[in-house]
Automatic annotation (TrEMBL):
The lineage of its organism: Eukaryota, Sar, Alveolata, Ciliophora, Intramacronucleata. It comes from Paramecium tetraurelia. This is S-adenosylmethionine synthase. Catalyzes the formation of S-adenosylmethionine from methionine and ATP. Binds 1 potassium ion per subunit. The potassium ion interacts primarily with the substrate. Binds 2 magnesium ions per subunit. The magnesium ions interact primarily with the substrate. GO terms for molecular function: ATP binding; metal ion binding; methionine adenosyltransferase activity.
């Protein structure tokens, strides 16, 4: 039954509810989050990608769709793998758990005593025939249907949104403090959130200040809450947050639950592919819905998402726009994309529009899966490292999708003028 209020009651309700965030006109807040390698979902991503790397290391043509799940001391690996590699799956799983830092049940899992269940079949012959068949490498089809998103913004040197870039930097620093025993009380599980205040300027916007930062770091029983807060300030926040965005009004929520000793799979179940926003752009630009980890590059959920980031970053790096979202769609067994969409949010360079950017993308990039795999060298065992800290905005040399292609606009204009003259 609907609830109805008299006008005087409605006025009272409105008058007692105050706007919580008082911002200047044209300003807005945006929040991103990230989680550590020890978060149970990220642990599963790391296990799945470690198995993928083990397969690709021996057989670059391995077809892998590997999922993982964990709870308490049980870890399960399941999916479809077709490979000529001889992979000791249980050994790979235990080593991955150890590498993340779970070496004692008090932390949430012990790699030595965990129960490992492996349930892996071969890839469907029908899918393999549709995707590969007898096709040339460049003509292989997409491993499934779906849409993939790429995004880039000029607000950081890495061309990533500032909110998510800071989240990933905080996670990296937390993990460094734990691994190097700068903060020996830290345990593997952690989550962060960063909220930034932005100011609109026409079609564009830019970061003004960090509004608030939230860190939840798993810890041992011996340290006090006040000590945790002090050490997070001195060893983490001061090392990561750009001082030009920090002011006296920046808020810090450090282990707001007070106690966080129970973490990892003991505190929560984990599953591969459940942190897709953490993996990408922190909520900016959209998402196609497909997870990355545990998938070989014939799966366009992964390879085409990398390519879309490459395209988006190339457009921004070439000064053709200030930020942009790229959408690419595929059908199973079909090599050419079914659609390509470019949205620069009105930030395109003077003299261009999104139609021009779309033409530039189609002429400058071949987005067939086989070509993406070849140009970005995606058959290498490089994926376990992506399972923590995001797949984009990285500086490691092996991640070729982060190396933008600077587009020759003069050549493109000359070619377009020639085409128009021939009509």
């Amino acid at each position: 039954m609907a609830t109805h209020y008299r006008l005087d009651e409605q006025h009272h309700l409105l008058s007692t509810h105050k706007t919580k965030f008082q911002l200047p006109k044209g300003h807005f807040l945006f929040t991103s989050e990230s989680v550590s390698a020890g978060h149970p979902d990220k642990l599963c991503d790391f296990i799945s990608d470690s198995i993928l790397d083990a397969c690709l290391d021996q057989d670059p043509n391995s077809k892998v769709a590997c999922e993982s799940a964990c709870k308490n001391s049980l870890v399960m690996v399941f999916g479809e793998i077709t490979t000529n590699a001889q992979v000791p799956y249980e050994t790979i799983v235990r080593e991955a758990i150890k590498n993340v830092g779970y070496d004692n049940i008090s932390k949430g899992l012990d790699y030595k005593n965990a129960s490992i269940i492996v349930s892996l079949d071969q890839q469907s012959r029908e899918i393999n025939q549709a995707v590969v068949g007898a096709k040339h490498e460049d003509e292989i089809g997409a491993g499934d249907q779906g849409l993939m998103i790429g995004y880039a913004s000029d607000e950081t040197p890495e061309l990533m949104p500032l909110t998510h870039h800071l989240c990933n930097k905080l996670i990296a620093r937390l993990q460094e403090c734990r691994e190097k025993e700068i903060c020996p009380w830290m345990r593997p599980d952690a989550k962060v959130q960063v909220t930034v205040e932005y100011k609109r300027d026409g079609a564009t916007f830019f970061p003004v200040r960090i509004h608030n930062v939230l860190i939840s770091q798993q810890h041992d029983e011996k340290i006090t809450h006040s000590e945790i807060q002090a050490e997070l300030h001195s060893h983490v926040l001061k090392h990561v947050l750009p001082q030009q965005y920090v002011d006296e009004h920046t808020q810090y929520h450090l282990n707001p639950s007070k106690a966080f000793t129970v973490g990892g799979p003991y505190g929560d179940a984990g599953l591969t592919g459940r942190k897709i926003i953490v993996d990408t752009y922190g909520g900016w630009g959209g998402h196609g819905g497909g997870a990355f980890s545990g998938k070989d590059p014939t799966k366009v959920d992964r390879s085409a998402a990398y390519a879309a980031r490459w395209v988006a970053k190339s457009l921004v790096a070439s000064k053709l726009c200030k930020r942009v979202m790229i959408q690419v769609a595929y059908g199973i067994g079909i090599s050419e994309p079914l659609s390509i969409s470019v949205n620069s949010y009105g930030t395109h360079a003077e003299g261009y529009d999104d139609d021009d950017l779309s033409e530039i993308v189609q002429e400058s990039f071949d987005l067939r899966p086989g070509v993406i795999i070849r140009e970005l060298q995606l058959r290498r065992p490089i994926y376990a490292k992506t399972a923590s800290g995001g797949h984009f905005g990285r500086t490691e040399s092996e991640f070729l999708w982060e190396k933008p292609r600077i587009i020759d606009i003069v050549a493109w204009k000359a070619n377009k003028e020639q085409q128009q003259q021939q009509k």
